[in-house]
Design a protein that fits this description.
Shape: elongated
Oligomer: single chain
CATH class of the largest domain: Mainly Alpha
Strand content: 5-15%
CATH superfamily of the largest domain: Hypothetical protein, domain 2
Largest sheet: 7 strands, mixed
Number of domains: 2
Distance between the termini: 76 Å
CATH architecture of the largest domain: Orthogonal Bundle
Length: about 350
DNA sequence: AAGTCGGGGTG
DNA sequence: CACCCAGACTT
């Protein structure tokens, strides 16, 4: 056998389960979605948790489940309602796909979840990780998972130094994950791996002295836990400057819904233009987006920045008194500022609305 | 294989 | 500022 530290040998493999599950039973996190093993609840939580930290999901999960307690309720909801309850979580395609999948489950599967990894994979928004998570946690199917936490744990156990974006790096770790997931309690085992990664085997300064797997961790034995796994290459962030327009008539302001192919598809936002400063006024008048809109001199209300993946956007917020409404169009609405809370808005849109509220007394 | 998609908390 | 996160999907 020529295997060395690049993968776990059979002895180390067998050594994982017992100490890991013992650690989990006493150290596991108390999370709202762990109160239920209903596939629907597990599914909703897993979609929310994609690329989103646990602490940011807690409250949204509780609110969402209260509004849509089962797959039929979700399937019958409007996309606006679903998006509004997704507000602030980001990656809104997840919400649209969740909604589409709920309809699919109701129409094609009589409201019952497919009870296999392959069946789950056919639903929009469910990939290899999420299918394995739902299958193992909600259905007691011995399916592997690989995500940010368990990837780090397994990479260190096996001293697998390649960064996640390296070619073939994940394939080896998926193989490892499949080799170690037990037939008994696969869901607990997988969640234990994730909790260990989140609480002990952290990206920086892992707490190896508290780790139940330290004795069989190749990275720890080599003293390389700080450098494993390697960091992926980061793209440079690109800076963007634009203006957001709060066009006002009386107590109403102009908002628009983001369309297909745009960021925040389906969500409402204030109109924005790439022009800033002196060029803004003519840009407003020319903008096919806005009408054209006739309005008085733009007035600076404030500024804010936000980030979308590798873009950093500086927004100058400008208010103006519109003379008349301009064209009517789907996805364009004059909304009383007091009622803007009912719309599913982008996060910067919410902040812009706040500036607008300060501008407009009551 | 590389890009895209949010947002906020942390150091 | 950079880094991080219970990934999926398109090109």
């Amino acid at each position: 056998m020529g295997r060395r530290t690049s993968s776990l040998d059979a002895n180390r493999l067998q050594a994982i389960g017992r100490p890991l599950l013992a650690w989990y039973s006493r150290a596991k996190r108390d999370l709202p979605w762990r109160r239920s093993r209903d596939p629907y609840a597990v599914w909703v939580s897993e979609i929310m948790l994609q690329q989103t930290q646990v602490e940011r999901v807690r409250d949204s999960f509780v609110r969402f489940m209260a509004a849509f307690p089962d797959v039929h309720t979700l399937a019958n909801a409007t996309e606006d309602e679903v998006l509004r309850l997704w507000e602030g979580l980001g990656y809104y395609r997840r919400a649209r796909q969740l909604h589409a999948a709920a309809k699919q489950i109701v129409v094609r599967h009589a409201g019952l979840f497919p009870r296999s990894v392959d069946g789950l994979l056919e639903l929009p928004g469910i990939g290899r990780y999420t299918a394995g998570a739902i299958a193992s946690i909600a259905m007691n199917i011995s399916a592997p998972i690989l995500e940010a936490n368990s990837r780090r744990v397994l990479a260190r156990l096996a001293a697998h130094a390649a960064p996640p974006d390296a070619g073939g790096a994940d394939a080896a770790l998926w193989t490892l994950a499949a080799a170690i997931v037990p037939r008994r309690h696969p869901g607990r085992f997988n969640q234990a791996l994730m909790d260990l990664g989140a609480m002990v085997c952290t990206p920086r300064q892992p707490r190896c002295t508290a780790c139940p797997l330290a004795a069989c961790c190749a990275a720890h034995q080599q003293g390389r836990e700080a450098e494993i796994p390697g960091r992926p290459r980061r793209r440079a962030t690109e800076s963007i400057r634009e203006s957001a327009i709060v066009a006002r008539i009386g107590d109403r302001v102009l908002v628009l819904r983001r369309g297909p192919g745009e960021w925040w598809e389906g969500l409402w936002d204030f109109p924005r233009l790439s022009a800033v400063g002196r060029g803004l006024s003519p840009a407003i008048e020319r903008s096919p987006l806005l009408g054209p809109l006739r309005c008085g001199p733009p007035q600076r209300l404030g500024s804010l920045t936000h980030s979308v993946t590798h873009h950093r956007i500086a927004v100058a917020v400008v208010g103006c008194e519109a003379v008349r409404r301009g064209r009517r169009a789907a996805g364009l609405a004059w909304v009383p500022l007091a009622k803007i809370g009912r719309l599913a808005m982008t996060s910067p849109g919410r902040r812009i609305a706040k500036l607008a509220a300060e501008w407009l007394p009551e």
